[in-house]
Amino acid sequence: MKTLVTAIQKGGQGKTFATCHLALDFKERGLRVAVADLDVQGNASYTLSNYKSGIKASQLFRASPDTLMSYFSPSTDRTLCLIEGDPGLADIEGLMNVGEAASQLKINLKALSEFFDVLLIDTPPSLGVIMSSAVLVSDFMLSPLEMEAYSLQGFQKMVTVINNLRKLNPSLKFLGMVPNKVDGRKPRHVQNLSTLRNSYPDLMVPFAIGLRDSIAQALGEKMAVWEVKKTAARIASHEVRALAQYVIEKMEIEQ
Ligand SMILES: Nc1ncnc2c1ncn2[C@@H]1O[C@H](COP(=O)(O)OP(=O)(O)OP(=O)(O)O)[C@@H](O)[C@H]1O
Ligand SMILES: [Mg+2]
């Protein structure tokens, strides 16, 4: 099982959008996908509520591996399994330190690894115990980013964070910043995107996701954007499929 965490310490950038769409795309490819919603807001849990496994996300930090494994039998449908965000995550954030949280998480992910090909972790927008421990146990990381001034500020902080966490998890591969909600009609967006590409050529993915109403609609209607029946959803679908293809190739997931 390969693990990808979607993280950036700024809200509303598209972490949950990316996690849910990668999950739905990977499922269609026939992969066995688990999604851990580590955000107490539970947005990914809302969009993926048709795929509940019964496991609560806080259990990843405090249940035994045997308890988690008991949710799966050889006959359980494991094409897409949601590990749901729950209020217990607030206790993890408040009561555990990063070292404890990461080691419990690591043990439990190992137990789940025989059941899944890929685990996608959605994180909350603050650099707390939960986000840090998720980054520490993951193989890959992806960070979506809006092209607004406050987001670029968040990006700079994230570069420092990535560098620090990489020292503790040297095997972490950063797949890149994904420019999201880009509105090509706004000179500010175009300018910020070009500045970022010039300043951080190695950190930016070579494509962008537009500001697409159909994406917000899809998340609210618990579906992938390619299931939205409107002409305008087509461009969004191409962009999101390109993101999924990029991630699959970078993670070297066999299909
Ligand atoms: N490319 C896009 N075009 C239009 N709307 C988008 C796009 N990406 C995300 N959104 C919308 O923007 C909002 C924020 O996205 P999302 O919830 O994925 O961000 P997040 O980083 O997970 O936020 P948080 O940190 O609060 O969890 C949502 O309402 C979502 O539907
Ligand atoms: Mg979110």
What is the CATH class name?
Answer: Alpha Beta
Shape field: globular
How many beta-strand runs? 7
- Rounded average pLDDT: 95
Amino- and carboxy-terminal Cα gap? 13 Å
The helix-and-strand class reads alpha/beta
- Main sheet makeup: 7 strands, parallel
Q: What is the oligomeric state here?
A: single chain
Strand order of the largest sheet: 3-4-2-5-1-6-7
Strand content: 15-25%
Which radius of gyration do the C-alpha atoms yield? Answer: 17 Å
Give the CATH topology. Answer: Rossmann fold
Ligand identities: adenosine-5'-triphosphate, magnesium ion
CATH architecture: 3-Layer(aba) Sandwich
Low-confidence stretches: none
What is the domain total for the residues? 1
- The CATH superfamily is known as P-loop containing nucleotide triphosphate hydrolases
Number of helical segments with 4 or more residues = 11
Report on the architecture of this protein.
The chain has 255 residues and is of the alpha/beta class. It has one domain: P-loop containing nucleotide triphosphate hydrolases (Rossmann fold). It is built from 11 helices and 7 strands. It has helices at residues 15-28, 43-47, 59-62, 65-69, 88-95, 98-112, 129-137, 149-168, 187-199, 213-220, 233-251, and strands at residues 2-6, 33-37, 52-56, 80-84, 118-122, 140-146, 173-180. A 7-stranded parallel sheet has the order 3-4-2-5-1-6-7, sandwiched between helices. α1 crosses α11 and α6 (98-112) packs across α7. The longest helix has 20 residues, at 149-168. The relative contact order is 0.18. The mean pLDDT is 95. The structure holds adenosine-5'-triphosphate and magnesium ion. Residues 11-17, 39, 41, 43, 125, 180-181, 209, 211-212, 215-216, 219 line the site of adenosine-5'-triphosphate. Residues 15-16, 39, 43, 122 line the site of magnesium ion (MG).
